[in-house]
């Protein structure tokens, strides 16, 4: 009975640890290690696997692989098609499986072995369920022939799987969002570089290949262009990484290998197990470089494939995904346009002069397009530029949305309220008929020189005589249409079509970037709104709990026994802790989404100290501690948000109080510092330098290095005795960063800690910025 009770206590502790992991960390590797450590506390196993499923590609891969109690990182993230193996079986059934002989079961069902250790005996696996869907499999096993797993152990593993699935799904979504933000940032940064490199073909091709490798976090990459003859062969122009420089100049026959298929079919190809794909020609096999995964996309301009862009071996977990295909395809569209532009620089003098003028216009437009991630602004720039270039009377851009598809107009100029095609509702145009329907099917631009002789033309602009309709493509799909019309002479010209097509191609990239950016902004706003909502909804009941518990402690409703008083104190203490946690979560979310508002003004630091110590003085006195102040007499005013600086100092003094022994001293010092330098070594303007020193438990070097990480709590038992959220110092750093200041810490384990932060000077004392003789005022309090 005692053993059973102890086991239940351990089980409850494991579930508690896993639940806390879900709520307080989004680091995938930390969660994987935690799931493994907590699971093996309850179930003795020498083999442990966490396996995820890529729905887009129908592939599975281990993200955590332990055999004989040894984590084998080299076996993680290798993909296989979901099929005839036990991991796929658990995922497909959505039910746990418990078998006595792993190898025997594989043999009897003719299944594939996905593990390394062939002596594996007992094994059980459970699906990782989130809602009604499964994201993967949690499994473990043993090589001990005498060990079998019980039904209770299977139930325990299933319960752990439910907690782990939620945690891993959150981490995966968080990592995917951050990775997409990083990719979009790189994509936006290199756009202007690509335009600038269009006059140097070699530099441009290298920039495109290096940028693609960086965007996709790949180990190597290559760019191939079609040869000048009509053979359709591809030639290696650039090779980055993998030691494949000897491939430059090598020709790949038309239709051969992965790149040949991509060029022939004008469609991307993704392979996450290159060794088993017969199309892989092994371009890098000559050296020691081993190719595991390949993503290749066509370089297409004006609906013509001019080459192939290829990246190999994604360095981040999970191999290449459908999102990677979409991103690289969008980048390849932009790259193909730049390559084509570069080639056009080699035309005759007259043609070159005309092309230079056109490119200068396009470059100016590109600068404007790349400067904005606002969809409405991008559409406006595109339409205005197209109308001006073509001499059109009116123009519009519409997104292709809905099912059945229709054209949602996001910007138009030159049209009146009555200038709408038959069947249009508001600014939503039909796409099931008219010239637009033809362009949607063909994905080719059309110039209708005389609309009166086109039987499919649907009148829109009053008195229109000529129309241009251009598809805007992303990853081979029409995402939007650019329409130009005129109701006056001269009519729209064929000579303007190449420029308009390039404008549409460039704008397609900008629109895709704007849409992706808007998605991230909406996600961040939703996150901030959710946390703010939760914080607001929790504040009222917490206030009531604190208020009524205070009434009870004061005896407003009658005297309490000692035991009852202790209960009420516990309620009040936990309400205070929860209130702090809610506030901290709200502040961290505001920092992460750049929504923390600060109101700057001239701030007197002695007043900050006074407002900080007033609410803390009672608990400091109860612990017999003293606060010593060493503040420069002529200390200038700070340029700061007074409330936020009070929040910073409160956090630092509160920590000093918590982690210092009774009867110790806390010291607050402040002076003007003129010798500060930023991370690049550049001297900063004079700043008010504040230091908070305690005589507490101190920190190890490892703890100092992780101190400002969200949710970090030291493993030091003395530190763990004190309550906390692990968010206070993250918020503190965010506030100081928002002030343009610096923050750092010096600490010695068992001796004490000093936190330093700086804030810009607003008004220099005596007009000298604190220069000259420094007088100190030391107050005990």
Brief write-up:
With 781 residues, the protein is an alpha+beta fold.
List keywords for this structure.
781 residues; alpha+beta; eight-stranded mixed beta sheet; seven-stranded antiparallel beta sheet; 18 helices; 43% helix; disordered C terminus
Structure notes:
This protein is of the alpha+beta class and 781 residues long. It has 18 helices and 27 strands. The strands form 4 sheets. Strands 20, 21, 22, 23, 24, 25, 26 and 27 form an 8-stranded mixed beta sheet that branches. Strands 1, 2, 3, 4, 5, 6 and 7 form a 7-stranded antiparallel beta sheet that branches. A 6-stranded antiparallel beta sheet has the order 10-9-8-13-12-11, with helices on both faces. A hairpin with a 2-residue loop joins strand 6 (123-130) and strand 7 (133-141). The longest helix is centred in the last third of the chain and has 57 residues, at 497-553. The protein starts with a helix and ends with a strand. 36% of the residues are buried.
Number of helices: 18
Q: Which residues sit in consecutive blocks of at least 5 with pLDDT less than 50?
A: 764-781
Please state the structural category: alpha+beta
Question: How much of the polypeptide forms β-strand, as a percent range?
Answer: 15-25%
Task: Say how many strands there are.
Answer: 27
**Cα-atom radius of gyration:** 33 Å
The main sheet comes to: 8 strands, mixed
Please describe the topology of this protein.
Layout: H1 2-24, H2 28-42, E1 47-54, E2 59-67, E3 70-71, E4 79-81, H3 86-93, E5 97-99, H4 102-109, E6 123-130, E7 133-141, H5 151-196, H6 201-215, E8 218-226, E9 234-240, E10 251-252, H7 257-265, E11 269-271, E12 294-301, E13 304-314, H8 322-344, H9 349-371, H10 375-390, E14 394-401, E15 406-413, E16 428-430, H11 434-442, E17 446-448, E18 466-474, E19 477-486, H12 497-553, H13 562-592, E20 601-603, H14 605-622, E21 626-632, E22 637-640, H15 642-658, E23 665-673, E24 687-693, H16 701-705, H17 717-720, H18 728-738, E25 743-748, E26 752-763, E27 776-780
Helix pairs in contact: 1-2, 1-5, 2-5, 5-6, 5-8, 5-9, 5-12, 6-8, 8-12, 9-12, 10-12, 12-13, 13-18, 14-15, 15-18
């Amino acid at each position: 009975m005692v053993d059973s009770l102890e086991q239940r206590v351990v089980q409850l502790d494991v579930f508690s640890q896993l639940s806390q992991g879900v709520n307080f960390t989004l680091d995938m590797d930390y969660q994987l290690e935690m799931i493994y450590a907590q699971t093996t506390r309850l179930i003795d196993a020498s083999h442990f696997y966490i396996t995820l499923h890529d729905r887009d590609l129908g592939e599975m891969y281990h993200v955590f692989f332990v055999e004989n109690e040894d984590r084998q990182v080299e076996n993680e993230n290798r993909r296989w098609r979901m099929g005839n193996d036990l991991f796929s079986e658990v995922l497909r059934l959505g039910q746990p499986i418990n078998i006595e002989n792993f190898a025997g079961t594989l043999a009897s069902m003719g299944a594939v072995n996905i593990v390394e250790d062939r002596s594996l005996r007992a094994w059980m696996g459970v699906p990782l369920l989130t809602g009604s869907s499964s994201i993967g499999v949690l499994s473990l096993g043993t090589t001990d022939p005498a060990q079998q797993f019980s039904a209770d152990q299977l139930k325990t593993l299933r319960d752990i799987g439910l907690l782990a699935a939620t945690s891993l799904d959150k981490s995966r979504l968080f990592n995917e969002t951050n990775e997409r933000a990083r990719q979009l940032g790189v994509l936006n940064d290199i756009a202007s570089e690509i335009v600038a490199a269009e006059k140097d073909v070699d530099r441009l091709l290298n920039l495109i290949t290096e940028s693609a490798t960086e965007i996709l976090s790949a180990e190597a990459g290559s760019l191939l262009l079609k040869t000048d003859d009509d053979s359709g062969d591809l030639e290696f122009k650039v090779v980055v990484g993998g030691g494949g420089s000897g491939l430059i100049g090598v020709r790949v026959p038309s239709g051969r290998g992965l790149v040949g298929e991509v060029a022939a079919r004008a469609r991307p190809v993704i392979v996450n197990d290159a060794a088993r794909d017969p199309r892989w020609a092994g371009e890098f096999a000559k050296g020691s470089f081993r190719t595991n995964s390949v993503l290749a996309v066509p370089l297409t301009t004006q609906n013509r494939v001019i080459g192939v862009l290829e990246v190999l071996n994604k360095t981040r977990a999970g191999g290449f995904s459908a999102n990677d295909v979409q991103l690289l395809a969008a980048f390849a569209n932009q790259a193909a346009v730049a390559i084509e532009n570069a080639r056009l620089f080699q035309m005759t003098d007259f043609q070159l002069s005309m092309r230079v003028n056109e490119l200068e216009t396009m470059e100016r437009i590109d600068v404007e397009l790349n400067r904005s991630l606002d969809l409405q602004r991008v559409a406006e720039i595109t339409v205005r530029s197209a109308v001006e270039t073509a001499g059109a009377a009116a123009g519009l851009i519409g997104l292709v949305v809905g099912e059945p598809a229709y054209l949602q107009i996001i910007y138009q100029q030159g049209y009146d309220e009555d200038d709408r095609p038959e069947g249009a509702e508001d600014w939503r145009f039909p796409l099931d008929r008219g010239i637009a329907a033809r362009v949607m099917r063909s994905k080719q631009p059309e110039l209708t020189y005389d609309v009166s002789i086109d039987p499919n033309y649907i009148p829109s602009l009053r008195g229109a005589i000529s129309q241009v309709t251009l598809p805007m493509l992303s990853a081979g799909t029409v995402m939007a249409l650019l329409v130009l019309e005129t109701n006056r002479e001269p009519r729209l010209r064929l000579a303007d079509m190449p420029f308009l097509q390039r404008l549409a191609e460039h704008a397609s990239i900008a629109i895709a970037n704007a849409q992706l950016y808007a998605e991230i902004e909406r996600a961040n706003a939703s996150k901030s709104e959710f946390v703010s909502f939760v914080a607001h909804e929790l504040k009222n009941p917490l206030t009531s709990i604190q208020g009524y518990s205070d009434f009870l402690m004061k005896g407003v409703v009658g005297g309490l026994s000692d035991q009852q008083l202790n209960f009420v104190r516990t309620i009040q203490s936990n309400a205070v802790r929860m209130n702090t946690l809610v506030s901290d979560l709200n502040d961290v979310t505001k920092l992460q989404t750049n929504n923390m508002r600060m109101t700057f003004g001239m701030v007197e630091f002695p007043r900050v100290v006074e407002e900080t110590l007033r609410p803390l003085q009672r608990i400091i006195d109860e612990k017999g501690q003293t606060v010593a102040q060493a503040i420069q007499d002529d200390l200038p005013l700070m340029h700061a948000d007074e409330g936020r600086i009070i929040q910073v100092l409160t956090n630092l003094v509160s920590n000093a109080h918590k982690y210092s022994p009774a009867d110790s001293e806390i010291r607050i010092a402040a002076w003007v510092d003129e010798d500060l330098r930023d991370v690049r070594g550049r001297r900063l303007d004079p700043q008010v330098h504040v230091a908070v020193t305690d005589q507490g438990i101190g920190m190890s070097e490892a703890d100092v290095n992780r101190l400002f990480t969200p949710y970090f709590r030291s493993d030091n038992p003395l530190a763990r005795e004190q309550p906390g959220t692990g968010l206070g110092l993250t918020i503190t750093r965010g506030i100081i960063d928002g002030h343009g200041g610096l923050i750092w810490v010096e600490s010695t384990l068992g001796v004490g800690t000093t936190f330093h932060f700086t804030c810009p000077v607003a008004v220099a004392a005596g007009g000298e910025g604190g220069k000259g003789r420094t007088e100190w005022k030391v107050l005990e309090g």
